Amino acid sequence: MLAGFDQQADAILEEQIAICEIPAPTAMEQDRADEVQRRLAAIGLSVQQDEVGNLIAQHPDPVNNPIVLSAHLDTVFGADQPVAVARPGQPNPYRAGEAVPEGEYHAPGISDAAAGLAAVLAVARVLSGSKAERHMLYLATVGEEGRGDLRGARHFCNSRLGRSARVFITIDHSDASAIVHRGIGSRRYNVRFRSSGGHSWAHFGRYNPAFALAAASDRLADIRLPRSPRTTYNVGVVQGGETVNAIPELAQMDVDLRSESPDQLERLDADLLEIIQRGHDKELRRRAAGALDPIVTRIGDRPAGTTPDDSDLVRAARTALEAEGLQPRLIAASTDANAAIAAGIPAIAMSWGGRSDNQHSIREWFDPTDRARSLRVIARTLIALAGSDAG
User: Fold this and answer.
1) What's the alpha-carbon Rg for the chain, to the nearest Å?
2) What is the pLDDT of residues 204-215, one digit of tens each?
3) Which residues in 9-135 belong to E strands, given as ranges?
4) Alpha helix (H) residue ranges in 209-336
5) What's the whole-model pTM score?
6) For the purposes of burial, counting CB atoms within 10 Å of the CB of 137, is it exposed (0-12), middle (13-18) or buried (19 or more)?
7) pLDDT (tens digit per residue) in 341-364
């Protein structure tokens, strides 16, 4: 049975490319969902879309307390971003003047999330007709990335069907040896500095939101953070202004805070709110005319949590990795598994295999070499959890 991953290697890659080339920005996943639904149904699974757009696929005669295998549909890229996959030896439109290296495939989203979706489909095909299949629920979620804030996974995990799940496994990282059993918590904010605006010459001296934003972001960059528990911050989007000779009425930024520790995340959250006020106050001391209070809106809140390393789920994943000659490592990340852990469901994230890098960048690439080993790891884990054998 598990030899099917090697036998189908070319078909899995072509399926991944086809999925990648269907744009799926967060909140605009429908076209990709329709295609993945068609492919799941062709395997012989019963497929439905729930109220928020998640795909749920099971054997036509499913069992209670399913084992959930998931990947997310959406990407971080906008609808206007070209996603044609550049193949080995072709000119690389994402790196001007370069050709795509041998063995690599380049496109935004080629690994995150096309590789995860291709892995779910490949596993579903290989397990089709096996004892394990009836224990499985295959899930493709909406709204995992960015402002999606795990919307699809949260909805599923808090539904009647989701609450009945035995375990939840999402395929959402590139490290073949790693098991993500700790969910990194995150808080995300949109911060809007505002003024009445005006002409850069005639109204010089009015409050300038761009200076307030710059003061706040510069102060944020100076925060010293602990190495353990690992904690990070990022200013990911900056927008505002109309033209070079106008005082902007608005300057805004989206800020991402993350930590393995809920307590550390709370401290960083409080620091950010203080920094925003200080940036505003600094600009007020220089130029108060036309100032409006900043608006801070929380746009994301991912819970932290852990699936114990001695749980049946983590033990099964460890054993499967060792069976494929890999040395298991337990790590932390932020994935749909966060939502499952928060809902009380044992959950981990596993690797889509191969090699890849530059996720969330237009320079993202994927090399399918040795992908079959990671797919066998996933299948072995599922078979063990289902109490079946690979025969």
Assistant:
1) 23
2) 999 999 999 999
3) 46-49, 55-58, 67-72, 105-106
4) 209-221, 262-286, 312-323
5) 0.89
6) buried
7) 999 999 999 999 999 999 999 999
